[in-house]
Amino acid sequence: MATSEQKAFCVLQFAKTESVVTVQRAFRIKFGCDPPSDNNIRRWFHQFEDTGCLCKGKSTGRPRVSEEDVERVRESFTRSPKKSVNLMIDGVISDLLLVTMNSVFIYSIN
């Protein structure tokens, strides 16, 4: 992950040279590590052109549940309660199984 200083360096160098390869060479000399990819350098440059900032955008956070979704689920349970509960349980069990398998896999790697 590039630091703010490294991103700023790349943007300024790209503005001067308009060459990703030249930016990458200068980056390697200045910072002594592998340079960012050409896509990242271009993305940072365009982001700076568009917004004047290299800051991360605000994350969207937790998704909201719309009233329409709540009403749709409520109607589904009202229409066919037993079928809806069985489908819900199947979904919960499969999600739980997936999480458990992921945990076991990650634990076995470490």
Automatic annotation (TrEMBL):
Pfam hit, one: DUF4817
Designated name of the protein: DUF4817 domain-containing protein
Highest taxon in the source lineage: Eukaryota
Domain DUF4817: 3-54
